[in-house]
Protein 1
Amino acid sequence: MKKLKRSARLVEMTQYLLSRPHTLISLTAFADRYQSAKSSISEDLAIIKEVFEEEGFGELHTLAGAAGGVKYTPKMNKDTALEIMTGICKELELPERVLPGGYLYMTDMLGQPELLNDLGRMFATAFAGRHIDVVMTVETKGIPLAYATANCLNLPVVIVRRDNKVTEGSAVSINYVSGSNKRIQTMSLARRALKEQSRVLIIDDFMKAGGTIQGMMDLLYEFKATVAGVGVFVESGEVEREERLLEDYVSLAKLTAVDLKTKQTTVIPGNYFA
C-alpha cells in the first residue's frame, strides 16, 4: 500500500479493524502496511481506541510483548442497546404480527441488515467474555441472526437441519420433544460440521418452552461439545416456569402477553436488560 497522509491512514486503519473483529494484528503488520514508524502507529491506535470507546463502537485491546498487537472487540453499551430494543418491541407489538399459537411474525425484521447488525452486536457483547469456538442455530429463521452474531465474534456458523441432507454426508440425528406442542421431531447435524469438544454458542430467533434449544443441546452431547451460552431474540413469557426447559439463557425481548382475539400483545426488553 502506498504511504498515506495521517488522516487517510486513520480512516483506513479504522476500516481495517472493523472488518477484522477478534483478530490480533501486530504493530509490525500495521507499520509495514502503511510504511510508517511503530510510534506513529501507536499514536493512531490510541486515537481510534478513544473514539471507539466514547462512541460505543467497542473496545480496542492492546497486548504487549513481541507477539503482541491490537485486537478489536465489537460491543454495544446497554443504554444504546436498550433504546434500540425498545423500538423493536414497539414494532413487534403491531397486531398484524400475531400468528396462531401465540407466535409473532418476525421474518421481515430478521431480513433487515441494519437491525441484524445491532442484534448481533448485542449478543456479541453479552457473550464477549466466554471462550466460544462456533455459533450454532437450527434452520431456518435463526440463520441470519446466527450469522450476524458470528460476524461480530469472527466465528464460523453451524446449522442444524430438520432432516438429513444427502449433500451433508454422514450425520448424527436425534429425536426431541417440541416444548410448545409436545410433538416428537427430528434434527440432524453433519459429522464434519462440528469438531468434538467444541464450545458452542446457540442462537435462536424465538423460544417458547425451549424444546428446540434443548434438542440442540442434546445433539451437542453426541459431539462431546460444551454449550458456552444460549441467546434468543424473543422469548415467550406465557410459559409456566415448570414448563420451561431452560434456565440459563439471554433474551433480548420478551413476549409477556398476547390476546389472540384482539391481537393485542405486550413485548418488553428481555432478561439481558434486567
Note: Helices lie at 6-18, 27-34, 38-55, 78-92, 113-126, 143-153, 211-222.
Protein 2
Amino acid sequence: MASPLDASQQEDRVVLLDAAPRPAADTAEPFIVASDGRVILTYPIAESDFERFGPFDPDDDPFCAVLFADAVFHRLGPPGDADLSIHPLAAQGLIGSAVHEVVNSSLCAEIATVAAGSMATGPAAPARRHFVITFQASTFECVASDYTIIGVFGAGEIASREAFALVR
C-alpha cells in the first residue's frame, strides 16, 4: 500500500529547462550565495553551451549566475550524477548535469501547507516553483517564485563576485 507521500510524488513531473546553461559534467562544483528570500547559484557551464552563451576567450572557464527570487527553500548535497538514481525524482525524468523544473511539485505543496498554517493573515505568498539542477557530485534544489540568469561570465571568480554584489 502506498503512503500519502508516495501518492503525492506521483504528481511530480520533471521537465528540462533549456533557457538555462547546462552544468559542466566534469569540472568545478557550484557555489551558493543566499540571503533572506534570495538565492544565487553559480556553476560552470557545459562546453556544448559555450557558443550559445559566448563568445569566450580560449583561456576562459565560463560560469553562469542564476538568481532564484522569493526563495523559501534551497539545498545543495547528494546525490551526484553517478548515483542520481537514488533521488526521489529520478523516476520522473531527472537526469545528470541538467537544469530542471518540477511541475506539480509535492515539495511546493508541502511548503504551501506549512506556510498556510503559520500565516493566519497577511499578503498572499507568490506562487512557488521547484527547480533542480544536477551536478557531477551534488544536486541543487530550490523552491522560489522564479529564476533569472544574471549572466554568463568568463570565470568563476567573476560570477561569484556578481553573486555577492546582488545579495547585499
Note: The chain has a mean pLDDT of 86.
Protein 3
Amino acid sequence: MRKLLIVETKLWLREWPMVLFTITLPVGLLVVLGISIPALTEPDASGLRAVDTHMPSTMTLLALLTLACTMVPGVLTTYRELGVLRRMSTTPVHPARLLGVQLLINLATGVLSTIVLIVAANLVFGSPLPRQWGWFVVVFLLGTAALMAIGLVIAAVANRKAAPGIGSLAMFPLMFLGGMWVPREVMPDGLRVVSDYSIAGPFTQALKDTWAGQSPEVMHLVVMAAGLAIFGGLAVRLFRWE
C-alpha cells in the first residue's frame, strides 16, 4: 500500500497543470464573483455574507467534484486502456487498495484546494475561518470521501472515451443540487428533498453550518456516510482490471 501510494503520487504530480487548475478555478471564481457582484458581500439578517458561508462551501464542492468526476475516472480509465491495470492484476494488489490510494491522493489535493480557498476568502473579503473547526474537518473528510466514491464507481466501469461524458452527467446535477446556481434555501420543497439525499446537498449545507458556527445536522452526516458505504462498495465490486 505504501509503495503504491508513493508511485501513484509521483505519477499524479506529473499532471500538475490539471491539479493546479483544480486548485485555482474555485479560488478565481470566488474572488471574481465576490468583487463583481455586490450582493455577495452584503450581510443578511443574521449578519453573514454569501462570501462568508455560501460561496466558500459551493466552491469547495466545485473543486472536489472536479477531482471526483474528472481526475479520478481519467487516471484509472487511462490505466485500463494502456494495460497498466491488466499487468497489475497479476500482482497481489487488490482493487480496494488501488482505489483507496486514488481516494487518498485526491483527498490530499482537495485539502490543499480548500486551504487555499479559505485563506483567499479571508485575505480578500475578510471572511472568517470556519467557527466549528472540529465539525468542519469531520464534514469535509466524510463528504469528500463520499464524492470521491462516486468518481471511483465511474472509473470502475467506464472506458476512457465514455468516462468524461459520464463524469459530466454526474458532476453538473450534483453541483446544482449542492446549491451552486440556486441556493438550497430558495429551492422548491420537492427539489430541496432531492438535494437533501444527493450527498452534494448535505455536504454544502453541513459546511455552511460549520462556517456559521453551528453543528451539522445528523441526517446530513448519515446521508454522506451512506453514500460513502454504497458507492465505495460498488466501486470495489464493479472494478474491472481490463
Note: Residues 40 and 50 are 5 Å apart (CA to CA).
Protein 4
Amino acid sequence: MTEPDLAELGKRAAEFADELTTTLRSVLPDAPQYVAHVRGKGRKPHIAVMALNPDTRQAVPAVLTIAGAPRIDLHARYYCWWDRDHDYLAVDNSRIAIHAHNSSEPLFRHEYERAQQSYPPGAHLHVHAHRDESAYLMLIADRHRPAERNAHRTSSFPRMADLHFPVGGHRFRPCLEEILYGLIEEYGVDTVDHTWSDTLRNSIRQWRIRQLRAAVRDEPDTAADLLRSLGYAVHVPEHAPRASFTSGIDRL
C-alpha cells in the first residue's frame, strides 16, 4: 500500500474513532477517547480503533457506573481496512467484550471476522456461563466429528463460552451502540442525561443505513428488482456491477 493510501485510510479511521468518542461521551459520564493508530508492519498493516490511556498508550475500557459506582467494563476494539472496491473504510475484525468491573473473564463478547466465510459464523456472540446440559451436548459433538472442528476450544473440557451464536452475519450484526443500549436498559447504567436514548437511536439508525448500502452493493440486481416492484424506474448501466457473493449477505 502506498503512503497516500495509508494516510487516507488513517484519516477515515480517525473519523470513525471520533464518532465513537462523540457518541459515547454524549451517553456516559466518563467515556474514554477512541483513537486510530497503525498496528502491524509489512504489506498489510491494520488501522486499529480503540480507547487508549493517553499516558501508557494501553487499551482501556469504557467504565460504566450504576448509582455512581463502577460496575461494568466495556472493551471495544476494531481493526480496519479498505472494502473490496477500495472506496470505503471496512472493519476487518472487531471484538466487543462486557466484563464485570476489573474482572478478567468476560460476561459475554461479540466478535466479528470479515474473512470468515463458513463456520464459525463471521459475526457471533460468546456467552461466558455454565450449563451442564450444554457441556454434555458439546462433549457428544466433539466425539463424533473431525478433531479440527474442535480446534477453537479454549480448554480440553468444552465450555459454553466456546459456542458461537450467530448474530446477523456480515451485514446485519449488532453495533456497539445497540449493545450499550441494552446494558443501560438491563442494568440501569448511569447516563449523562435523558437524551441518551435519542443519541444511541440515531447512531444505530446511521449504522443500519451504512450496512444497507453495503448490502445493496453486494446484491444490486436484487435491490433493483425490489425498487421496480415499488414503482421506481431503474436504469441498468452499461457496465453494471456484479453481485459479490463473497462479501456479505450469503456468508454466515
Note: The helical segments are 3-25, 132-143, 169-172, 176-187, 196-218, 220-229.
